Amino acid sequence: MDAVTRIERSLDAAIALAEGPGSPPRLAAAMRYAVFPRGARIRPRLCLAVAGACGDDRPGLAESAGAAIELLHCASLVHDDLPCFDDAATRRGKPSLHRAFGEPLAVLAGDALIVLAFQIMARAATEAPGRLGPLMLTIGDSVGMPVGIVAGQGWESEPRCDLAEYQRQKTGSLFAAATAAGAAAAGAEPGAWRLLGDRLGEAYQVADDIRDAVSDEAELGKPIGQDAAHHRPSAVLQLGLPGAIARLEGLAADAAAAIPPCPGAEALRAVILLETRRLLPRSLAVQAA
Amino acid sequence: MDAVTRIERSLDAAIALAEGPGSPPRLAAAMRYAVFPRGARIRPRLCLAVAGACGDDRPGLAESAGAAIELLHCASLVHDDLPCFDDAATRRGKPSLHRAFGEPLAVLAGDALIVLAFQIMARAATEAPGRLGPLMLTIGDSVGMPVGIVAGQGWESEPRCDLAEYQRQKTGSLFAAATAAGAAAAGAEPGAWRLLGDRLGEAYQVADDIRDAVSDEAELGKPIGQDAAHHRPSAVLQLGLPGAIARLEGLAADAAAAIPPCPGAEALRAVILLETRRLLPRSLAVQAA
C-alpha cells in the first residue's frame, strides 16, 4: 500500500472513532471537514518515510503517529483561522471551518482533534507498549509549551520576538516531530532524527513565504499576500525572490545531509529532495526544471 | 504529604514545565492564571483517593494523572468562558482568562493545557511504562470524542439533545476519568471504577445546579442564575430545591455503593460521603447539619 493510502485510511479510521455512538453529529462533521479532503499531508508522509528508512517493523504504529501529527496540524489550522487570529475566510479552497460551522464548533473541533491525536496513539501502541512513552513525549513536546507549535503561535501575542525562534516553534517543531516520531514508531532513537525535521521545517517556512508572494489563490487554496498585509516577516521580503529560492535549495541539501545512518538512508535522501522541490509554486517549478 | 499538597505540587511542576526556556512569557502566565489559585480540585482529589484505595504503589504516576485531569478541566473552563460560548466575565472570583489576557491567549492557553496533560503523563509513566496506554485511553476518551467533555459541550450546538447524555458527557465523563485513572495509575483495572465516577459526576452536576440557584456570587466565584438566564436544563428547575437535594443524597449513596472491592474501600466510602456533603452551598450545608 502506498504512503498516501496508508495515511488517508488511518485518518479516516481516526475520524470514524470520533463519529462513534453518542457523538454530537455537527461537531463530528466539523472534525471530518477539518481533515478532508486532504491537504499535502507532508508531515505524515515524512513520518512514514522515516519509519520506512528505520525498518518500519510496526507499520500500524507509524501510521497512527503520522495521522496524529496531521490531526494536530489540522487542529492548529482551525484555531489559527479563528476571528481572534487570522479571521481567514477560506482554507484548502473551501470556507474556513468557523465560516462553515460557526465559531463554537471551530473551537471545539480543534480541541477534539488535539485529544484525538493522543487517543489514536494510545490505541495503536497496544502492539508495542514500550514505544508509547517516547512517541507521546516527542509529539506532545512538539505541539505544546514551552517550544511547540502552540508556543510559536503564542509569540504573536508578545511585544517582541526572535524571528528564527518563532518560526522554529510555529512551523519547525511539527516537522521535527514527524521525523522523530517516525523513528520512535519504528523503535529507533528519536532524538537523532530531529535535525532533519528542523531543516525541513525551515525549508517549508521559506517555501510558504515564496508561495504567499507568488502563487495565486486558486493554486494555494487560501488568500495570498497575507505576509505583506499583516506585516509578517517573510524570507521573500527579507532576501528577495531569487535569494529565497537559493535559501530553500540550501536547506534541502542540509536536510539530506542530516539523515542519520539507517538501512534506508539512500532512498530517504531521494524522497527529501523530491519533496522539497514540490514545495515550490507550479510557475517557479516549471522555470526551475 | 496530604492529597492537596501533592496535587498543588504536581500542578506547579506541570506549569513550570510549560514556563521552560524558550516559552512565550504571556502565554505561560495565562496558563498559570488558569490553574492557580486553586479551585476545589475535586477531580484530582478523587483520583488520588481511588489510587490510595488501590494501594498507590506508584504515587508519582497517580499525582500526574490527577494533575492531568485538573489541567484538562481548567482548559475546558477557559474555552467555555470564551465570548462564543458563555462570555463569562469572572471565574474563581477573578476576571475570566480572556478578559485578563485577551481572546487569542485564552484559545492558546486552553490548547496548551490540553497538550500539557499528555506531556506530564508521558513523563511520569517512565516509572511504569505499561500503565501509560490504559491511562491515556481512559483520560483521552473521557475528554475527546465521541463521548467526552468536548463532545458534551458539542451538544450545545445541536438542535436537539438528550439531557442525561449531555450531562454525562460534559460533566460525568471527567469524574469517571478521575476514578478510572486513579485505579489505572495504581495498576488496577480501570473499567470497574467508572461507575463510581459516573455517579459522582451526576451528583456534582445536581450540586452545581443547586449552587447556581441558591449561592451568591461571592461564594461561587462566578455569576449565579446562569441556568435560568441561558434557559439551560437544571435539576432545581426540574425537581424543586428539596427534590434536588434529595436527588443529590441518593446519588452520593449510590456512589458509595459502587466502590469495587479493594484494600481501602471503607476509608474511600467515608471520603465520598464527606466530599458530596461539601458540594452543597454553605447556607444549605448548615441547614442540613
UniProtKB/TrEMBL annotation, chains A, B:
Pfam (any one): polyprenyl_synt
Matches recorded under Gene3D superfamilies: Farnesyl Diphosphate Synthase
Keywords from the UniProt entry: Isoprene biosynthesis, Magnesium, Metal-binding, Transferase
Example of a GO biological process term: isoprenoid biosynthetic process
GO molecular function: metal ion binding; prenyltransferase activity
Cofactor(s) annotated in UniProt: Mg(2+)
Keyword Lipid metabolism carried by entry: no
Protein family membership: Belongs to the FPP/GGPP synthase family.
Protein name: Farnesyl-diphosphate synthase
Organism: Belnapia rosea
